[in-house]
Structures are given as structure tokens and as C-alpha cells.
Specification:
Blueprint lengths: L1 H16 L1 H13 L12 E3 L5 E5 L11 E10 L5 E6 L3 E6 L10 E9 L2 E2 L4 E2 L19
């Protein structure tokens, strides 16, 4: 193939520059890549006061050949825009604080990407929408805030 032609012209320059050594390294790097997609459809639980959210999703199946360093999590309220929430160290969130408390009756959706040293999943994995945040019971004492 065309390798024969290239060798005839360039082999001296390649070896003196040490470039032939890096060709093997490049091939190795190609095998490891950003992770595959997380499975969506997982459940989201919002705290009754709307201030935090919990969820568990399956570890990503395709790690891209490199350890998963975390999971990037975004959230949205009802049909609003997506906003960054946190980067989870594992495939779960336990009472992760929301930047702004979610109003009663609103639902929260999360989306997740796995992250490794080469990048992140190509697509977001979206959760189910949470149950609506409950309406707080009226405070018998009245009281201001």
C-alpha cells in the first residue's frame, strides 16, 4: 500500500525526530475515549420544602476505557431552561441543594452525563419528572419571614 512509498522518502527524518515512537502512542489513545451515555428514565425525588433533590441512576456501561471521574448534573423546573446543578462523584445524588427552592406544585427533571478524563457522554440522559412539590401546610402561628 502507500506505506512502502512513505518509508522510501521519509523514514530517516521520522526516526531522527523520534516521531515513529509517538505513532504507537496515538494508537493507544484512540482506544480510550469519552464515556457512553447514561441510561435515562431514572426517578427524581424533591424534598417536601423544594430545596433539595435526590436521584439514583445506573453507572454508565461504556466508560470509554477510562475511569469515570464524575457525573455532570443539570436540572430544570417544569418546562424551564436547563441549569447546572452539580458534578456528582458517583451515580447518585442525596439531598443535593437546589440553587433556588422549587415552588409548590412544580416538578423537577434532571439530566446527567458521565465524565472521564477524555470528555463526557455525547448525549444527556434525562430523568422522569418528579412528583409535584407539595403545598406546605398553613402555619398555625401566622408569623412573618
Amino acid at each position: 500500500g502507500n506505506r512502502r512509498t512513505t518509508v522510501h522518502v521519509d523514514v530517516e527524518a521520522l526516526t531522527s525526530a523520534g516521531a515513529s515512537a509517538s505513532v504507537g502512542a496515538d494508537r493507544t489513545i484512540e482506544r480510550a475515549s469519552e464515556p457512553g451515555d447514561v441510561s435515562g428514565g431514572f426517578e427524581v425525588l424533591v424534598a417536601d420544602d423544594g430545596t433539595s433533590v435526590s436521584a439514583d441512576w445506573a453507572d454508565v456501561g461504556d466508560t470509554g476505557g477510562s475511569a469515570i471521574t464524575g457525573y455532570r448534573v443539570e436540572y430544570r423546573v417544569d418546562n424551564g431552561g436547563w441549569a447546572a446543578l452539580t458534578t456528582a462523584g458517583s451515580s447518585s445524588l442525596s439531598s443535593a441543594p437546589l440553587p433556588t427552592a422549587v415552588a409548590a406544585g412544580s416538578r423537577v427533571t434532571l439530566r446527567v452525563k458521565a465524565v472521564n478524563q477524555f470528555g463526557e457522554s455525547g448525549s444527556w440522559a434525562e430523568s422522569q419528572r418528579s412528583e409535584p412539590v407539595p403545598t406546605p401546610a398553613p402555619d398555625p402561628g401566622g408569623g412573618g419571614g
